[in-house]
Write a structure and sequence with these properties.
alpha/beta; Rossmann fold; eleven-stranded mixed β-sheet; two-stranded antiparallel sheet; about 30% helix; globular; disordered N terminus
Length: about 425
């Protein structure tokens, strides 16, 4: 991650870093692709019983000005992931990123490239495929719980696809949200490519980082609530594939997010009762004082007031992450909350270990498209397959328990299935 990215991450809602899943990070091959050959990567298979479908929509909020581009309405891109009737054939799998977004994400100086330090232009991001069939009809069978997903600061909504597809394969409808002008890039159907405004903002002299991060958190909460407002209307949206609108159970909505998305998940839970449960994947809930004095600034209201509904904290072993005891925002949230809550920390992990970085970056490293040092900084030394399995299992267990009423008891305490997960309750 760049120095600029680290400055953002250190202050609050975690900067974005992400990882991959095939083989241990330490096993980095010295040889890479041949001349002119781009590195290739793939996502791990979903583990649930259902094939997965996906569709994408643009949403425009005519009642709200864009927080980063005053004078224009707020535009968002969302994708829906859901159980479908038939698995996608190899040549029919939806792309991980649309071409314009993939080209920018992999280019020199993009927020994605700066944060993850992969070699610019060395990876075929457009060639990565999901396991989902685009615009497939929804699987019949009644209403299904809905989970919103928010990526980390600077990350596109696609950066959590491995987790999202897995939830959809288990019977959830998952809605992923791109936070326009904050994400590295957002591609719209009309050809507009909205790139992040943060490099320019972070270069301003005398920048109040705490104020900027508070603004970012509020923008994400507003984006999430705008999407919640629109979900009911999607029942009548003719752009949706057959049967999808009818499968949305808006009485059972949860949210999971990574980094700034995890912070937004808990803050939105505090602000909006429509969210019944939330998972925070290593997103901080405290602000650093811009004068460097170390004086604690007011915490977000989610931490100050606590939550009355269930939440799960999943920390990493980054220096300012881990157990709720080590983070003032997490600690306040823990003390003030009356709803069910638990905390787990993945041993050997880093901030990107709960994202697709955990499955993609090790593959790029073996092909020489990212250095071993940068790989370890992003995902630590936890075996990628273990990190992916643990993330999927704990997130699914949580939502199964609180949105479906099915308890597999994984969250009751330390589990022999995942000895690398340090559990606190």
């Amino acid at each position: 991650m760049s120095g600029r990215g680290r400055a953002v991450a250190a202050v609050l809602l975690a900067a974005t870093v992400t990882l991959g899943v095939v083989g241990a990070p330490g096993a980095v091959a010295a040889s890479g692709p041949g001349a002119g050959q781009q590195a290739r990567a793939w996502l791990p298979q979903p583990t649930g019983p259902y094939p997965v479908g996906t569709t994408s929509l643009q949403l425009t909020d005519d009642r709200r000005d864009d927080p980063w581009k005053p004078g224009q309405h707020r535009k968002l891109m969302i994708s829906l992931w859901y159980p479908t009737t038939r698995a996608a054939a190899d040549d029919d799998r939806a792309p991980y990123m649309v071409p314009a977004a993939a080209e920018h994400f992999g280019s020199d100086g993009s927020v994605g490239q700066s944060d993850y330090r992969f070699e610019p232009g060395r990876t075929d991001w457009a060639g990565i495929r999901t396991h989902a069939r685009a615009d497939a009809p929804a699987l019949p069978g009644g209403k299904r719980p809905v989970v919103l997903y928010s990526a980390g600061f600077g990350d596109p909504r696609t950066w959590g696809t491995g987790l999202v597809e897995d939830l959809a394969s288990r019977g959830y409808v998952v809605v992923t949200v791109d936070h326009t002008y904050e994400a590295s890039e957002v591609a719209f159907p009309d050809g507009d490519l909205a790139t992040s405004v943060f490099p320019a903002l972070l270069a301003q002299p005398g920048l109040d980082m705490s104020a900027l991060l508070r603004r970012m958190l509020q923008s994400r909460v507003d984006d999430t609530r705008s999407v919640l407002d629109r979900l009911d209307g999607l029942r009548h949206d003719e752009r949706l594939p057959a049967g999808l609108a009818a499968s949305l159970d808006l009485d059972r909505i949860g949210m999971v997010g990574h980094s700034g998305g995890g912070s937004a998940a808990l803050q939105t839970m505090h602000d909006d009762p429509r969210l019944k449960a939330g998972v925070n994947l290593d997103g901080q809930l405290h602000f650093s004082n811009p004068d460097g004095s170390g004086v604690q600034l007011p915490l977000p209201t989610a931490a100050e007031d606590g939550l009355t509904r269930p939440f799960l904290l999943m920390g990493t072993q980054d220096p300012e992450s881990g157990s709720y005891h080590r983070q003032p925002g997490w600690d306040a949230l823990w003390r003030h909350s009356t709803g069910w809550h638990a905390d787990v920390t993945l041993t050997g992990s880093r901030h990107g270990s709960y994202t697709d970085a955990q499955s993609l970056l090790p593959q790029l490293a073996r092909q020489g498209a990212i250095s071993g040092t940068d790989l370890t900084g992003a995902v630590g030394d936890v075996p990628p397959d273990r990190a992916v399995s643990a993330t999927r299992s704990y997130v699914a267990s949580f939502f199964d328990r609180w949105l479906r009423g099915h308890d597999d008891h994984l969250l009751d305490g330390p589990s022999p299935r995942f000895p690398e997960m340090v559990y606190e309750r």
